Amino acid sequence: MTTEDIPRLSGEWMTPRRRFISALFGGRVDKIPAMTLSSVATLEGMEIADADFPEAHLDAEKMARLAATAHENLGLDTVMPVFHSQLEADALDADTWWGEKDNWPATKGHVLDDPDSFKIPPDYLERRSFKAVLGAIKLLRKRYPDVGIVGKVYGPWSVGFHLVGIENWLMGTITEPDKIRRYLEVLLPASMMSAHAQFEAGADAVMWADHANRELCSPETYRDFLLEMHQGVTEEMGGPSILHCCGETTDRIDYFAEAGWDCFHFESQVDPVKAKEIVRDRMSLFGNINNPTILFSGTYDDTYKACMEVLEAGIQGVAPEGSVPLGVKMEVLQALSDSARDYSNANRPDGRLVTFNPTK
Amino acid sequence: MAQLSDITNAVIRTEIEEFIDDPAEIERNVELFAKASAQMQEIAAALLEGDNDTVDQLTRIALDEGIEALEIMDDGLIAGMGIVGIKFRDGFIFVPEVLVCARAMKAGMAHIEPILAASGAEPAGTVIMGTVKGDLHDIGKNLCIMMLRGGGFIVIDLGVDTSPEEFLEAVAEHDAHVIGMSALLTTTMPNMAKTVEAFKDAGLREKVRFMVGGAPVTPEFAEDVGADGYGKDAMAAVELATKLAIEVRA
Asked: Is B97's CB within 8 Å of A322's CB?
């Protein structure tokens, strides 16, 4: 066999899983991945998978089937089975309302008023919310060895919102900062256990959500309460890490990069060009297609155009900004993978690898 | 024209000097505080420092001394909260600081509200407020309610997770014409549209005005869901409710 006889890699030759992981670390890709990092579960998807909310939150098989629609029906490079934000809080005895077919779960009452009374239950990882999520990740790993699987963890700041109440928590950062720090300290192991369990079940990366965005607090609050703790988290998480923080975060992205996250999943309030300028090569950026005006109220063409603008900014992957509203049409979501494919085809000069941000 | 030096309270003077840039806003606040008594300035200063105990105490003392409830509310509590609103809008402070100041305002309003309610003064209007179905976040809504009540509105608070049917029932029960809907989650924002639709289906759309708000809500989204206005923050909500109440009466 001569060199000439060896077939040349071209077009889309990476598996979605390999592509996702490579992009997560800012590496070489054959196509820029189009992903879900939160939830793309929709009412249409529930029909296709025969897996409705709220049952799909607590049934591993239904959860896996619904999560798989992201890859099977939307052509995305990842699947994400944790549709809700109740995983840790429910297993820590929060009062969870699991919602309805067309409504999301939520935490109804707050159960914690003293950090020193908090204990992680001995059967924490065996409780219903974990049983479903860990079971779904295992099923997805078995069924989709070549697709990226993203887990989701709520960090102690966001679990604190559920257990203590968001108003008490935010006011506490001013009136009782030591108490809030103590909460963070005692809640952190619960989030770390969740991350480790999801990696062990087969997740390729874990998205860690701690909502310390501009709509809720100052950048200094992130620096003073979370930065050092997040540095510890990224060191000890044991796998690729993606930070998610809702809303406007431009004024604290620099801190996120300092925390050592491999990637930041950002929302539409953040200008991707500016975000890229701030982080440079310190972490990857995935995002940030607007949910309400583009995905929910817009068309396929609106979404395709929005994706192209984000891709032009040179970020490493395109994804909805957060969990999409349940009424979003799958036809509209299809624009995510179509735009990533078309952009990559137009920016693969050697036919093998995509050149990021060729014009800038 | 009043000067900054006409304001006796040092905290208020510093707040205006350090945090207000717009000349028209400086002038308005200087005028407002210069004509307010030292006692009212002290209440506003305590509110700006988030000192709820002091606001509570000073409000009680002022009422005991025979000062009108309306004067305490306008020249002390609302005037102080006005500066808080400017600082929040301009990014000098964030939600936690606003919450601490709002707690102080609430401490004062607890004494004022029953007196105003018993006085039989004509309200600016009745507003039905609720966080939409599926959403349990209420910080922004609660701040709006406090400012609306301060602005002379009767507010019916439907709380969180409010269905379109609950909004419909409340409008009928309270003969209200302005509805405020709040959402924090992009996943629940579409429920604003469902509420507007429910009013259309019930043939009541023309009888009410909808205002919407919440961190991810934008003026464009407000238009998309068929609302009549969008309020960026609690101060804007009061202005908007006033405008909509006049409009719907016309």
From this structure: no
Report the run of H or E that residue B209 belongs to, with start and end: strand B209-213
Q: Considering only CA atoms, which of B157, B247, B158 is closest in space to residue B210?
A: B247
| Least confident window among A316-325, B62-71, B128-137 | B128-137
Query: Which domains does chain B show, CATH number per domain?
Result: 4-119 (1.10.1240.10), 125-249 (3.40.50.280)
Show which of residues 135-164 on chain B sit within 8 Å of chain A, judged by CB atoms: 135-139, 142, 161
Tell me which range, A11-25, A106-120, B78-92, is most confidently predicted by mean pLDDT: A11-25
Cα angle, residue B237 at apex, residues B232 and B238 outer, rounded to 5°: 145
Say whether residue B229 is in contact with chain A using an 8 A CB cutoff.
no
**Amino acid found at B77:** L
Q: Taking the alpha carbons of B114, B118, B124, B126 in that order, is the dihedral positive or negative? A: positive
CA-to-CA distance for A43 and B173, rounded, in angstroms? 34
Contact with chain B for residue A176, Cβ under 8 A: no
Q: What are the tens digits of pLDDT across the range B36-74? A: 999 999 999 999 999 999 999 999 999 999 999 999 999
Q: Which of residues 2-61 of A touch B (CB under 8 A)?
A: none
Q: Compute the mean pLDDT over every residue in chain A, rounded to the nearest whole number.
A: 95
Cα angle A192, A197, A201; round to 5? 150
> From CA A16, how far away is CA B172, in angstroms rounded?
55
Per-residue pLDDT reduced to its tens digit, A42-88: 999 999 999 999 999 999 999 999 999 999 999 999 999 999 999 99
- Closest chain B residue to the Cα of A108, Cα to Cα: B136
A191 CB neighbour count, 10 Å cutoff: 25
Question: How many C-beta atoms surround the C-beta of residue B118 within 10 A?
Answer: 9
Q: Flag whether residue A288 sits within 8 Å of chain B, measured between CB atoms.
A: no
Q: What are phi and psi of A322, to 5 degrees?
A: -165, -165
Domains in chain A, CATH or no CATH each: 3-346 (3.20.20.210)
Q: Which two tokens stand for residue A24?
A: 């997560």
Residue B243 in tokens: 């405008």
